[in-house]
Fold this sequence. Notes:
By secondary structure, the protein is of the alpha/beta class. The chain folds into two domains: 3-278, Rossmann fold (3-Layer(aba) Sandwich), CATH 3.40.50.12780; 414-514, ANL, C-terminal domain (GMP Synthetase, Chain A, domain 3, 2-Layer Sandwich). The chain has 17 helices and 27 strands. A nine-stranded mixed sheet has the order 2-1-11-10-12-13-14-15-16, with helices on both faces. Strands 4-3-5-6-7 form a five-stranded parallel sheet, with helices on both faces. Strands 17, 18, 20, 21 and 22 form a five-stranded antiparallel sheet that branches. A hairpin with a 5-residue loop joins β21 and β22 (404-409).
Amino acid sequence: MRVIDFFDQGAALYPNNxxxxxxxDGANTTYAEALGISHKVASALxxxxxxxxxxVAILGPNSNxxxxxxxxxxxxxxxxLPINPRNPIDINVDLLTRFDxxxxxxxxxxxxxxxxxxxxTPNLQHIVCINRTDVxxxxxxxxxxxxxxxxxxxxxxxDDIAAIFPTGGTTGKSKGVIxxxxxxxxxFTNFYSxxxxxxxxxxxxxxxxxxxxxxxxxxxxxxxxxxxxMAAANPEAIxxxxxxxxxxxxxxxxxxxxxxxAHENVGKYxxxxxxxxxxxxxxxxxxKLKEAIEVFGPVMTEAFGQSEAPAAICAKAPWDYINxxxxxxxxxxxxxxxxxxxxxxxIMDDNNQPLPKGEAGEICVKGNLVNPGYYKNEAATHxxxxxxxxxxxxxxxMDNDGYITIVDRKxxxxxxxxxxxxxxxxxxxxxxxxxxxxxxxxxxxxxxWGEAVKAVIQLKPNGxxxxxxxxxxxxxxxxxVKAPKxxxxxDNLPRSxxxxxxxxxxxxxxxxxxxxxxx
Length: 519
């Protein structure tokens, strides 16, 4: 099954349900209406020469029209290039150039950016506005003027590609993950198996739909769920919308959750409709996860994945960490859950050999969830996939019940005085302090130790903490080797467009004078 097949099932069973609700203008689109739009868009794309295999990018905010056009691209059997409008223009030019983008469909909010991208991307054949007819240049409405009401999609083939997803780019230039329909189907199956996706779900699409939020939104199609489209991740707007729209499901990176918890009005709204508040894309502070359970209820949910194995290598639902007496099993709460049902997971050492439970090593995954590799990058594909196993680059420990706790990113490990130090362990201690909103721990050059532990901290509004206090807190919890040797306080940590902290950017400040760069 492809994404469009899941949507068609929902349209057949729930034609009058609202498929998309746009918070920007209050517009609703039913499944029957979205079905008709997707057929016309697919027909228009084919008639203009952008059929099966054409690489189509959509530049715009989370909106009804963006998702409807995406469905049309899927029906046309095009390959989706999910470029994030929050990226700098040169990044999107680079992605569309390296991934051979053929067509850019843009929302008028980003007309200036679309024209700048087109001027620098020679392989783009057209740029087309999807939502207005009073702009210069080509408009989708004109393309659709003679489109057919029905477009016959072809049969799915085993090697058909749904999208080319850019990797996070937190440690360098993004690679293009070739995302297969088979991997997306496995992701959906894993989510259906581990979480609640029943009739009448209401999913808030607030993280960029070009990231996990788009695919997670598509999970709700098969049972006629509603996707509420929010263009920007404003913390209080999210809190208000949960109450006003009776949101049942949504996904956010931890950093946005931290901002919601720190907001002065977090206790003002009703969150009783929530079934799954899914956090992922980066390690989550255990103390803040417990705080979120107190605020939002026993609905906090985690999934561990990456573009190479989308969103669902491991999963943890509320019932996995809530004991029968209602108390929290903290070791399970600290984990990212157990391996999902449609893939195998093992912990491997540096020689690619499985490790026994309780020992730390690289998390490796095998199964239909794993995508074929990287676009036009065989070397990176062979490096990541060894003997059929995808090496995630994340270091974890599996307990006797199969729950996996991530220690850190393999590339983030600090080697100080011959000792291996994983930043996540230190970050957990620091973010547990009530004054701290977020932090990043990196290794910086040190003549004596090779690398020294540096903490870079973003405090909450009106939060107060000193360097000496941070050092003493970590030293008492983890010992002197893991305690930061220095602490910097910043107004904001550098982040990617999807909210991940860019440790490479933080390190660059401290390593640039050495002529080396630690990634």
